[in-house]
Amino acid sequence: MMKFNQIVLLLAIIAVVGCTNKQQEAQTEETTLSGLYKSDFETLVEGDSTDLYVLTNANGVEVTITNYGGRIVSVMVPDREGNLKDVVLGFDNISDYMSNDNNLGATIGRYGNRIANGKITVDGVEYQLPQNNFGHTLHGGPEGYHKRLFNAKQSDNQTLVLTYLSKDGEAGFPGNLDVKVTMILTDDNAIDIQYEAETDKETVVNLTNHSYFNLSGDAN
Questions:
Q1: Which of 1, 13, 67, 127 has the most CB within a 10 Å radius?
Q2: Tens digit of pLDDT for each residue in 179-212?
Q3: Going from the N-terminus, what domains does the chain have, and what CATH number goes with each?
């Protein structure tokens, strides 16, 4: 009985120490200007890692982006008094993006907007796509790019390059499509988004970003 009690006590001590270490890590981790913790955006999706990337310019403007869905999470810009405010809608953790059906800040593809009845004809062949909007296909369907994990490479403080291979037949669309999205935070406080795509087969493509702007900058 004494040996069992000692084991239980040891496990309890380990649990307390582990909890304390996590609390200390949370207290020492720096937040972004918008109050985000990078660790809240770190998880695994089919074995690959999600992350939060931070762009800043010479004026102190900050943009945060997650490679899950190629999403703009926050945009901190100065208001008329020079105070930085977040002017886009977004969640403060990756779990909410993954558990809620939403397009907040997402890179949209393979085809932005609605496709009537979820049907396209390419090179004489009709394709039936998954329908997710009253019998139509909206923003690439229920498993569009907003739910895909992009490869991310940040070359400097102001540039993030996202790439993704959309395979032939994914979401019903024909052809392999290599997608490249370059996001640049310029020194005139603009976000320059450049889209590139290459395919090995006739297909349709219409890429865009789906940020919701809240120019009042309040937290609601």
A1: 67
A2: 999 999 999 999 999 999 999 999 999 999 999 9
A3: 34-210 (2.70.98.10)
